[in-house]
Amino acid sequence: MTGKTLRLKRFFTSRDGRVVLFPLDHGVTCGPMQGLQQMDRVIRMGVQGRVDGVVLHKGMMGFLDSVSPPLPGIFMHLSGSTQLGEDPHWKVLVGTVEEALRRGADGVSVHVNLGGTREPDMLRDLGRVGEACAAWQLPLLVMVYVRGEKIPSPAPDTAIAHAARVAAELGADIIKIPAPSEGSILREITESLPVPIVVAGGSKARETFPFLQHLEKTLEAGARGVAIGRNVFQHDQPEALLRAVHRIVHRGFSAARAWEEFSRDPCEGLSANSNLAVRQRTSAG
Prior knowledge:
Layout: H1 3-8, E1 19-23, H2 26-30, H3 39-48, E2 53-56, E3 73-77, E4 79-80, E5 92-93, H4 97-102, E6 107-114, H5 119-136, E7 140-146, H6 157-169, E8 174-177, H7 183-192, E9 197-200, H8 208-220, E10 225-227, H9 230-233, H10 238-250, H11 255-263, H12 272-283
Parallel strand pairs: 1-2, 1-10, 2-3, 3-6, 6-7, 7-8, 8-9, 9-10
Antiparallel strand pairs: 4-5
């Protein structure tokens, strides 16, 4: 067993081979956005919610000192840009694999945006990080998106498939992508690549039940897990939603069953968005 294989087991702890990642790297890009003002509380919520992995920038890893074990796997994020700059899609390296090891991380993550003028720089950085990860036997999570001057929004499914292929070709151990609009394309991606695909939660969803349905469909299409940040920490009931996500990913709940459990969660009442989803689901038969 290699060191990388052993460390990957710290993320894939369940026998089902699936993973729930909790990315909390938004602060560098967006600042103290809604839901992330108190990072210590958000990190503790994720740990208590039994996420399998957390993505943090180096400075926020200090909050882990006060969190009771057991801890999930920790990815130290190596990419950074801010929305204050001229090109927020241009991610540069703000840390190294060696630093992540010294800080106690179980893996590192890199964000790459394809389709823009700075694509070559980000590909070069990804190659360097991949080389270091192979040398130090540290798992590499690649978050890969298609966001360029000539790329329509949302990006075409064919471009998402291309991006996933790039990440796999350049040494990713786990690949995070936005969900293609067609489930058949996601299945083609998952079946054609040798490493796990996790699907990003995306922008904040307006309604809870359709979001849970979306998660269910991505898993049915072969995704090995989900990476959900703002749809949890910006939700009116983040703890309850995290429990619902865990039930779908690790306990095989359907979206409908997870929604029923969410709706009667003893710790929290229903939000306005949740009530709307109930009405929509009822009216749909």
